[in-house]
Amino acid sequence: MIEEIKVSQLPEASQINDDDLIMIVQSGTNKKITKENCQFASGDEIAISTTEPSDEEKLWVDPTNAYVGVDESDKDYYSTSEIKTNKVWVDNKPIYRKVIFVEELPNNTGITVLTGISSVDKMIKMVGMAYNKTSFLNAFPLPYVDKYSGSNNNIEITWLGTNKEIRINTSNDRTGLCAYITLEYTK
Prior knowledge:
10% of the residues are buried. By secondary structure, the chain is mainly β. It is built from no helices and 15 strands. A hairpin with a 4-residue loop joins strand 13 (155-160) and strand 14 (165-170). It has a five-stranded antiparallel sheet, with no helix packed on it. It has a three-stranded antiparallel sheet with strand order 5-7-6, with no helix packed on it. A three-stranded antiparallel sheet has the order 10-14-13, with no helix packed on it.
């Protein structure tokens, strides 16, 4: 039988070594990162703040809820809130990014999903991943084209710019799937 050990029962580390894994607990799931993936204030100290993060700052360390900062100069991260990336489109307009979560895909029909985006000049990129709702281990890209079964298994995603919505069409029952769709656009 495996003995369970709570994180709070482990001895506290006095320093961080290059090969150490640092555990981040985020929305009930965990992620392990290395020292080189963190932003450091000086030496071996991670820049930590106990203030409430903005919508763009989502990584928290438990049990003290101390915030581990995201490198603001990079902006190459994903959020369900709109973020201004450091990318620029061919017309020199900044590119924004927002991730839309779709709780359930439709059953042999189409649905529209409001994005909450206030204005869009050009949709630059729209890609996603569909997951089995009970296990995120099984996934496939969106849009999805099944070259073996023809259009019977396809999942289409379309940008409807007038109402700032995403249209999702399925050719069969996809209610066992959820999806994350990443939008990149200019204003």
